């Protein structure tokens, strides 16, 4: 046979060595039994083989370690197998594995072989267990055959017990030896996968054990000697074995029976040939040899002998007495023939009796097996009934679980529990009771299935429980479910109230299960049936349902408790919030009051110091002059700290007022530099202004902008060493922002502090950056004031050294109307506001001024209108729903960058209005607004037939007025 001729899908390089077990595969990839993924019945290996292997495991361990060890090994085998089966539906039990009528996949068999070998500790377990696979029925059926014939029928038996998973052949056979071959089907090799070598080794060991044990199990001869010629585990195409056995003694009866049975087997297996054509048999894949040692029938010999004896007797009589007549001569001839016939008939009668005995033995065996099959069928039917019952119970439990989890109201839950027990699970009466562990009292809360009088009596019962051995104590004190098959047997042990309740309800059997939640008994669940008794299955079902009910009741109780806590917590939160708000107001008032009160004495101190320095009290020496100057500097620092506290307090209280207007950035920078130049000269520092643009106009609060620039510049002067340089610059930042930069030549800011320099009360550690002390509020105030005006602030270390602080402010956008016609026609204005009254007010005002307003009730409608029409301007309310005014503004700027836009918002949302200016809006109006204020904004930005320069002259004229 050629080697390595595997199917195309098998990759030899992927095969693992024989010491690599399939147990390395965490889970089985194929179904172990039943139907495969294509809906075909799995018949790779007969259950008889698996049964023999399991029984041999149990037998060997029982012999060496005791019967209990054998049973435990089989149980452990099932557990190990179940751990490798993904679907619990296919989990096995010892009884299941012992059922010879099952069939399995070869992958499952490989796992089982590996586990059996490990549990037994015998490396030749599969070979030794092979002898157990010759079942009694096979031994009886094979007894009339010679070993030559039995080995010749190897393909027949292989097909019977491993249908479709292996292919077997007889290569050569003689009366004392046989050469057999076997290989696996493609589907079996696919199941083995990369572990084919190891799996094939185990399967071959099992097959060798079977073949070696045939002489022992069938004819009681010594085991056959088996020589392995090739093995699939060594990458051969076939497993081939040479088998030698001891010649067996033959008999005429056995030869006759063999001929009869051989003809029967041949008729059942047409592929098996009784002609000794070895080559043809090998090619065909099956071979049964011809019966050898055929002798002439003894009946013919005896008849011939009888006739010869008769003829000799007649001749002798005639020679002795020539006067003998023909009749006497014939009688002399027939007498030996008749005696031979009698002997032949007697022998035939004996042979017939032997055949009858053999047939009777086979019939008895078949009958016994038939009874076993019948019992197995009845057991299977009972299993089906149990399965249907289990399915019904599981369905009811699933439905009950969903129902119980759908409510957190205890009364509704109790009603649902009783309905489930009586309607879905078909119990006649049901009762839910609660148990108080502190008082040891049971109270029957709800009852169903009894008359109103009995229900009233049950709900009035308060039953103390003290005896843990009583029926009530067993459930609520010990936490064990209780099945009472006959109430009369435990009636004396019941509490008198429960005894009365049993009499009134005429209960015959009861099931009582504890309701246990978090290791705490909260109550009991009781059911009974009138017509049918209660079983252990009912007890298990009720125990499962009791767990669900206990969890649901615990959830309902927890929910009720959480609701109570929430109510109390909400009250405490409101009280605490009010207290915190009051404390915050008091703190703000205190800081404001203290700050203002401190400014009065500080003003006097500063004034007297200046008088002393100016010489109003007489001349001062150098040391006095130096001391007074330091006192004046510290008083100025204290005043700045007070101002910072006041600003921070105003910011936190939301009382910062912004008055945005056009700001000449260059002029502001010049004013700040001139104001702070003396301070820089005092430290021999150079303070410069660098303006990259001749004219930059920002939109914001001028005073607050100057405050920001002063704060940043003073900060730079303080942290820049003597003779350093501070540069203040302004530059465009895109088309809609202007950036102001303050740069120094100081030591810079540590990298780990850059993200925190704008936090309130944060100061760079003195060991890393020297400078005067302070509260650390200046930069946080800068950040807040800039962001309120729609800008952003940042800090970094300049590549050439020193720190650089910068902030941005919106640029005042100057645009002309989109539609300005010389014929005097009015421009279209989009009006977006979700309030119908304000929308109508704006429409009327615009129409009175000669415009054509187009209304939109929300942001979505505004975007749709903008996509279809063009406008000369837009008035947009910021708070207009899901798509707010800022998003509409963004869309307008993306599609129409030159369209003038006026934003409207409430007076409390001025920060949003300032932010809108930074996003490209031209102006904003705060609600409630005056008609004149709105008219001025419209007149400024939507005037017809005017250029940008004309509108600017108009605004400048208004400002001068």
Helix content: 40-55%
Structure classification: alpha+beta
DSSP strand tally: 24
Using only CA atoms, what is the Rg? 54 Å
How are the strands of the biggest sheet laid out side by side?
9-8-7-12-11-10
Q: What is the overall shape?
A: elongated
Q: Outline the biggest β-sheet.
A: 6 strands, antiparallel
State the distance separating the first and last CA atoms.
116 Å
> How large a portion of the residues is in β-strands, by DSSP E?
5-15%
Low-confidence blocks of residues: 1-13, 260-296, 767-771, 815-826, 945-961
Write the layout of secondary structure elements.
Layout lengths: L44 E2 H19 L1 H17 L10 H4 L5 E2 L1 H15 L4 H6 L5 H7 L4 H6 L1 H8 L4 E9 L2 E8 L1 H7 L3 H24 L5 E6 L8 E6 L7 H17 L9 H7 L13 H23 L5 H79 L5 H15 L4 E8 L4 E8 L3 H9 L1 E3 L6 H6 L5 E3 L2 H4 L5 H10 L4 E7 L4 E8 L7 H78 L8 H32 L7 E4 H18 L3 E6 L5 E4 L1 H18 L5 E8 L4 E8 L33 H11 L4 E5 L5 E8 L17 E5 L3 H13 L3 E5 L2 H10 L4 E5 L7 H11 L5 E6 L3 H9 L4 E5 L3 H11 L6 H13 L1
Parallel strand pairs: 14-16, 20-21, 20-22, 22-23, 23-24
Antiparallel strand pairs: 1-2, 3-4, 4-6, 5-6, 7-8, 7-12, 8-9, 10-11, 11-12, 13-15, 16-17, 17-19, 18-19
Helix pairs in contact: 1-2, 1-4, 2-4, 13-14, 14-15, 14-20, 15-20, 20-21, 21-24, 22-23, 23-24, 26-27
Q: How would you describe this protein?
A:
- The chain has 961 residues and is an alpha+beta fold.
- Helix content is 53%, strand content 14%.
- The chain has 30 helices and 24 strands.
- The protein has a six-stranded antiparallel sheet with strand order 9-8-7-12-11-10. Strands 14-16-17-19-18 form a five-stranded mixed sheet.
- Helix 27 (885-895) links the parallel strand 22 (873-877) and strand 23 (901-906).
- Helix 2 packs across helix 4 (106-120).
- Mean pLDDT is 79; it is low at 1-13, 260-296, 767-771, 815-826 and 945-961.
